[in-house]
Amino acid sequence: MEGVTSAAGKEAAAPVTAGKTMNVLVAIDDSDESFNALQWLLDKILKRTTVTTEEEDYNSIGKNNGTDDESVLRIIHVMEPFPHYVFPGVHAVFPTTSIIQSVNKAQEDNASAILAHAVRMCAERMVKAKTSVLEGDPKEMICDVAEQMHVDLIVMGSRGLGKIKRAFIGSVSDYVIHHAKCPVLVVKPPTETNSLT
């Protein structure tokens, strides 16, 4: 599949067919790469005829266990917690409550805008989508939520980090490929020869 990398040793995703339930998890952030991955999924794999959006919270995840009559796309956005201290030089600095509240509000607004854009993309393709905003380390949360939701496939965008950057800061997609308990599809950014069309 052009522009797509799947986890080694795991089966590639098959197109959705009528009567078959397939639960797909897309981890999305504000990057072009994650929206490219969602668009690729909508164009190449998921082709449905109904639109439903439903917000879930982390406590309700997994209660459905993928028993819907039709395939469902689950879109999550993971907010990293705001650090409550910084170490400039030798002394620790603790932000005020109002600063923490402002940052949290900005993160929530950003998450809402990201998911609204993703839901619009799904609605254009008549694809059922459920959204969730979670807080924690994105790498770990994606794997944990995928296991709880019993998803069949995780789809992510690749930021194309260089080898040195990946060695120092790690890659969310690399982590998920090695730790998820289901197949993982990593969609590479489009290039002139590798476009969405």
UniProtKB/TrEMBL annotation:
It comes from the Eukaryota. Residues 22-188 form the UspA domain. Pfam families: Usp (PF00582). CDD domains: USP_At3g01520-like. This is UspA domain-containing protein. It comes from Rehmannia glutinosa (Chinese foxglove). The lineage of its organism: Eukaryota, Viridiplantae, Streptophyta, Embryophyta, Tracheophyta.
